[in-house]
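Work Package 3 (structural annotation) set out to generate three-dimensional models for the target panel prioritized at the project kickoff. During this period the team completed the workflow that converts sequence records into discrete structure tokens, so that structures can be stored uniformly alongside our sequence database. As a representative example, we reproduce one entry of 217 residues exactly as it appears in the project archive.
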Amino acid sequence: MKKFDAVVFDMDGVIFDSERATMECWMELARKYDLENIEEPYLACTGTTDEKTREIMLDAYGRDFPYDTYAKEASKMFHEKYDGGRLPIKNGVFDILEFLKQNNKKIALASSTRRQTVVNQLRDANLLDYFDEIVTGDMVSKSKPEPDIFLLACEKIGVDTANAYAIEDSYNGIRAAHRGNLRPIMVPDLLQADDEMKELSETVQDSLNDVVSYLEA
């Protein structure tokens, strides 16, 4: 088995298939607002905070774009569809969490999403008790690709960053983990690994089950 003390997970796109679910909501609203090419700005928003998402959308559609109204509608649609444990869980989530627990590894979460949403979604999916610590975007001043959220997660679980893997699906997440001196593992979701991601990641794996195999080897 690889030598490591902890794994720090991103949530959206790693634990939950929420990036795809959110994009479907955005695309439905894009038709209502007659927005073209919504996929491109949406993908640029993955792994970022709400404030950064606002800037990306305003850059894409103009400073007069009613982003707050759009985002509120998208959030309402998402919660109506997926609250209460209906948010799809990515394949292999329970397997990797059980594997880590059985091998006495620390488990943390580092998500740009606000804390209450993270806690609610993990609790509804019966996943909350697996995590030793949860660090969210509202707990740090600088969001991914800055490493602050990963550094705080490692601090809270008492693990040196060099002995922690970070599992991410987004480019900014991999950049943040690398900058924080964690060992990044990319499990691509909506965005495939480009040359930069392959260089920054210790490994790129197709699924969380493949990550287990990698850690066991």
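The mean pLDDT is 96.
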